[in-house]
Amino acid sequence: MVIMVNGQKTEFKEEVLKIPELLEKIKIDSPDMVTVEVNGEIIYKASYPTFVIKDGDSIEFLYFMGGGANGDRI
Amino acid sequence: MRFTESQIERYSRHIILKQVGVKGQEKILDAKVLIIGAGGLGSPAALYLAAAGVGQIGIVDQDVVEISNLQRQVIHFTPDIGKKKVESAREKINQINPDVKVTTYFDRVNAENILQIINDYDFIIDGTDNFSAKFLINDACVFAKKPFSHGGILRFQGQTLTFTPDSTCYRCIFDQPPPKGSVPTCSQAGILGAVAGILGTIQASEALKYIVGIGELLTNKLLTFDALNMEFRTINLKRNSNCPICGVNPVITKLQDYEQPVCDLKR
Predict the structure, then answer these.
(1) Among A40, A58, B65, B233, which is disulfide-ready with A4 (CB 3.0 to 4.6 Å)?
(2) Between the CA of residue B143 and those of A13, B108, B119, B129, B146, what are the distances in Å?
(3) What is the pLDDT of residues B68-116, one digit of tens each?
(4) Distance separating alpha carbons of residues A73 and B226, to the nearest angstrom
(5) pTM beyond 0.90
(6) For residue B125, which of B50, B19, B232 has the smallest C-alpha distance?
(7) Residues A27, A32, A34, CA angle at the centre, nearest 5°?
(8) Containing H/E element for B208?
(9) Cα A64 from Cα A62, distance rounded (Å)
(10) Could you write out the DSSP letters of every residue in chain A?
(11) Inter-chain Cβ pairs, chain A and chain B, closer than 8 A
């Protein structure tokens, strides 16, 4: 299947992927820190294991960003 | 015309913008903006809003200036080390622009005080450093129907969205704070100072656009950028019907404080 990942065309040999499988394949650094938007809809974590990504889908990874330096202080 | 001659000169580059003009500058002078956190984001935001002539600026922060802040928190100077950040910020704002009335809150926002603090303001800037405060600010602004600008930064990256009542809120994207221990602040911490400046300045621009009523805000959008390749992307968002606070069946009906992750590079 061919999907858009953060605006980039990306090809996978699988025909479908569940969200945890996609996160694994894309080697997301901190899966706990990411929310997935599929075709404009935000998918909450509880639905990841059952949500199926298929050919033509457009995926955005949205990251938690809080603090930077000095502990959790910005 | 209510401006003094010196105000006409001071704000001339705003006034000649046809989208701002005299009327827009008057709105700015009448506006009240609250900046929560006088750090990497709050510093540039406060400097630009002060220079712009925002009539009242509130600043909430419970920290004192440390030497490690100075790499990015540009409202604080070396002689300010040890001073309350809210006082240091007030002094600079007064020096930039005596038109601005500054109110300081030497405190942290929490579930008890936040609604009362934000109540006096037209627009809120989230310049905080932790998820507990970010979720609290979102929830309070959703409840109180106050517009706010969310900002987050990490290493070379930043993200921001603007909330106005009935637009996509922070919880529409992130239903709850990340699990404990997963916050990449300890091992992967760090921030290029100028990245905080870019983001805080975007937040100040959003506040000014909201006040004057011009342009398109970053509502129902998340702007993300990566300074390493200087790539900016805008991701369209829509409200989430499952959102725990603004969705169809909201489960969050009162404010709550989350425990803050403990992480300090100095340890």
Answers:
(1) A58
(2) 46, 19, 11, 22, 8
(3) 999 999 999 999 999 999 999 999 999 999 999 999 999 999 999 999 9
(4) 20
(5) yes
(6) B50
(7) 70
(8) helix B193-212
(9) 7
(10) -EEEETTEEEE-SSSEEEHHHHHHHHT-S-GGGEEEEETTEEE-GGGTTTPEEETT-EEEEEE-----SSTT--
(11) 124
Q: Does the pLDDT value for residue B206 go beyond 80?
A: yes
Name every chain A residue with its beta carbon within 8 A of the beta carbon of B229.
none
Tokens of B56: 């009242």
By the CB < 8 Å criterion, does A72 face chain B? yes
DSSP string, B165-201: TTS--HHHH-SSPPPTT--TTSTT--B-HHHHHHHHH
DSSP conformation class of B98:
T
User: B23: exposed, middle or buried (C-beta count within 10 Å: 0-12, 13-18, 19+)?
Assistant: exposed
Contacts of A21 (CB under 8 A, 6+ apart): A14
CA gap B204, B209 in Å, rounded? 9
Residue pointed to by tokens 């911490």? B189
The owner of tokens 């009935």 is B166
Structure tokens at B131: 């998820």
Q: What is the token pair recorded at B117?
A: 């603090």
B39·A73 Cβ contact <8 A: yes
Find the range with the poorest average confidence among A62-66, B63-67, B153-157. Answer: A62-66
**Residue of chain B with shortest Cα separation from A42:** B173
DSSP annotation of B17 = S
Tokens linked to B250: 């909201």
| ipTM of the modeled complex | 0.85
